[in-house]
Design brief:
Rossmann-like_a/b/a_fold, 5-stranded parallel beta sheet, Universal_stress_UspA, Universal stress protein, UspA, alpha/beta, Rossmann fold, 120 residues
Length: 120
């Protein structure tokens, strides 16, 4: 059962990808990549995984429009072991509420979710 991660060209996305590659290698399983807003960044993400010796592939096509919903859908459709997400620092007021996308993934994912903290 694979590890699922979203591909985003943000610092959070980069940290999530690195953690997902490490997790897939540790579990000796495949990595499923879910493109963000576009498929930009997918090819470099595939290369990062393959350089680490991890079998990586794109998630099956989804009719979901929201990124969080596509991640959950990919986890369901691939019977994922874990979904990896990156978190970003929030303002003092924003700390009261976890980002809506992260909250949806944490609550709706059919498997454990590994949340990667931002760098200090």
């Amino acid at each position: 059962m694979p590890v699922v991660v979203g591909v985003l060209s943000t610092p959070e996305g980069t940290r999530a990808l690195a953690a997902a590659v490490t997790e897939a290698a540790r579990r000796s399983t495949a990595l499923v990549l879910v493109p963000g807003r576009s498929e930009e960044g997918v090819q470099p993400a595939l290369e990062v995984a393959r350089e680490a010796g991890v079998d990586a592939r794109l998630a099956p096509a989804s009719e979901e429009s929201e990124f969080a919903a596509r991640l959950v859908d990919a986890a369901e459709r691939t019977a994922a072991d874990v979904v990896v997400i990156g978190l970003r620092r929030r303002s003092p007021v924003g700390k009261l509420i976890l980002g809506a996308g992260a909250q949806r993934i944490l609550l709706d994912a059919p498997c454990p979710v590994l949340a990667v903290k931002p760098e200090s």
